Amino acid sequence: MNNNTFIPLQPSDGSEMEAYIAMPDKQGSYPGIILLQEAFGVNHHIRNVAERISGEGYVVIAPDLFHRTAKRIEIPYDDFSAAMPHYQAISKEGLTADLQASYDWLQQQENVVREKVGSIGFCLGGRVSFLANAILPLSAAVSYYGGGIQSLLDEAVNFHAPHLFFWGGQDKHIPQEQITSIISAVKEAGKEYINVEISYADHGFHCDERGSYNPEAAKEAWAMTLAFFQNKLK
């Protein structure tokens, strides 16, 4: 059996979604992770991240969040305009259904520790990971440079788990006042969080297939991400 593959899922709204699955090689019981894509699809990079996480001892599911407008579309990094129709078509209701379907799949796996599930997302996925922490009984959630989180600030009071945020200090897409409003909302809700701004990193610094990739920032943030998951999920 191939441990890394796409599987079909059916969210509660009746749509048909595929999700990429990455499993640890060895038999055992593992925490689950919902991995949430950038605006470019469940592409080579996101699948690679899924494999990196599964190699650390997690069962990973990466749902195709654009499935209502295109099936498993992969958009070039230099063509954000091609992503816009799909990006604009997603809704809180649709994302909620997709997250619930992904979580339910993890709950059904014999090798998943059911009460130990986390989420991680990048860019668009950073926003979706924020939503996931509010609607699912997670034990950990991570958002890398999540764009558009300020539209979900009223969800901070519903957080189930500590949330780890990463931002690039050189990011022109997410101004400082947005970051301040997001962290203030989480703080005022009395929820646990870690807020990390890497002053020398740009938007997308974690993705080694983008021009904004910063190897040092990526390595540092990833080490902290793994420590965070280790502490909260294992």
UniProtKB/TrEMBL annotation:
Presence of the UniProt keyword Transmembrane helix in the record: no
Domain Dienelactone hydrolase stretches: 17-231
EC identifiers of the protein: 3.1.-.-
A Pfam cross-reference name: DLH
Alphabetical keyword list: Hydrolase
Cross-referenced InterPro entries: AB_hydrolase_fold, Dienelactn_hydro, Dienelactone_hydrolase-like
GO molecular function: hydrolase activity
Organism superkingdom: Bacteria
KW Hydrolase (keyword) present: yes
Transmembrane segments: none
PANTHER family from the UniProt entry: ALPHA_BETA-HYDROLASES SUPERFAMILY PROTEIN (PTHR46623:SF6), CARBOXYMETHYLENEBUTENOLIDASE-RELATED (PTHR46623)
Protein name as it appears in the record: Dienelactone hydrolase family protein
Organism of origin: Pontibacter silvestris
Lineage: Bacteria, Pseudomonadati, Bacteroidota, Cytophagia, Cytophagales
